[in-house]
Amino acid sequence: MTEQQQNPSHAPSRVSRRYVLGAAGAAGLIAGGAGGAFGAAQLKEEPTALASVGSSSVPFYGNRQGGITTPAQARGHLVAFDLAAGAGRKGAAALLKRWSRAAEEMTAGRVPPGDNQIALDAGPSSLTVTFGFGRSFFAKTALAKQLPDALAPLPDFPSDELVAAHSNGDLWVQIGADDALVAFHALRVIQKEAGDGAARLRWQMNGFNRTPGATAEPRTARNLMGQVDGTDNPKQTDATFNERVFVPSSGSPEWMAGGSYAVVRRIRMLLDAWDDLSLERQEKVIGRRKSDGAPLSAGKGGTETTPVDLDKRDADGLPAIAADAHIRVAKPESNSGAAMLRRTFSYHDGFRDDGAPDAGLLFVAWQADPLKGFVPVQRKLDGGDGLSRFLRHESSGLFAVPGGAGKGEYVGQRLLES
């Protein structure tokens, strides 16, 4: 594991211009991981002082790209692009070079050449910029022989209500930062660098999480339904973590070694209908207490990390965890061990014509093989999860995210120069 995965809040080794302007008075360099992708048991460091949020940085170079095991940041942008007609492999390579150069500058807190100075007085704020390739990218760049088998189209799920214009794409970029202005700045730079005729924007989604330091101690995030969300994520300490999340060095194709596959879904929550349920009914739908995330099989005791007992019965002899409870249907034990690393953002895009909030989850799931991770789990959730009645899957995409770049390289170089 690289230093990037071991210490994502590693401070800059030298003082950068943006860092001097924005974080010279920062007190300490404490990791900003509150509300991250991993359970509270894994996040036991001291609370992040708000003054240190801007100074935290995630190295761009490394064996793996940032933004996968990095604790989820407070702000996020998910963006897809389509290559311009005639751009081909040469145009794609030039674009990835520009994007990688700009991302390296910004994640270090430096100002890219020709910058519009939106974030001039800010530190790096744990910025990550992650790049991936959609299935359609390979035909447009004459790289069909390098198309991974795992990048097969996702199946149609019966409950999907997908909008084609907001799904898929040739190129995908995930931006995360603990400061909204830093995240927007990175988004603006990425969009401008694509604006020379190399690629055009296909869709963009904007999300948020709890700000590091906003709670007395680091906690697992809550989603917009108010539920603790992410407890059962695989942990980096798990013996099988790397094999579930990352493509092995012996994997095929070779250019994906150390990479991962991202399933991206925009999932609207029917919050008005959810809020009409009683607290007891909400907890039965999920299978956990809303107050602290403890499984209902723990009775009146337990904590968020108490193991779920799917065989436990309540005082009436009924299953403590209902047959259609979300945690029962989604649990790896119920899916032949299938698991993925969920790293999500919430979103709110205003209100619909009926007055209901257009809000929910920007679902990003990382796995070594989506045919063994996301697909079987979603098939089961689609048919038997009580929570599905309160969700609408409105956009979808699957992207091959290669390993990281070394110094002097750009992301995707092993593919584009193969």
From TrEMBL:
One GO BP annotation of this record: iron import into cell
GO-annotated molecular function: ferrochelatase activity; heme binding; metal ion binding; peroxidase activity
Reaction(s) catalysed by this chain's protein: heme b + 2 H(+) = protoporphyrin IX + Fe(2+)
One Gene Ontology cellular component: cell envelope
Domain Dyp-type peroxidase N-terminal: 65-209
Enzyme class: oxidoreductase
Entry-linked PROSITE patterns: DYP_PEROXIDASE, TAT
Keywords, comma-separated and alphabetical: Heme, Iron, Lyase, Metal-binding, Oxidoreductase, Peroxidase, Signal
Enzyme Commission designation: 1.11.1.-
Subcellular localization(s) per the UniProt record: Cell envelope
Chain intervals for the UniProt region annotation (Disordered): 287-310
Residue intervals of the Dyp-type peroxidase C-terminal domain: 220-404
Required cofactor names: heme b
Cofactor comment text: Binds 1 heme b (iron(II)-protoporphyrin IX) group non-covalently per subunit.
Function (record text): Involved in the recovery of exogenous heme iron. Extracts iron from heme while preserving the protoporphyrin ring intact.
Family: Belongs to the DyP-type peroxidase family.
NCBIfam families: Dyp_perox_fam (TIGR01413), tat_substr_1 (TIGR01412)
Protein name per Swiss-Prot or TrEMBL: Deferrochelatase
Source organism of this protein record: Actinacidiphila oryziradicis
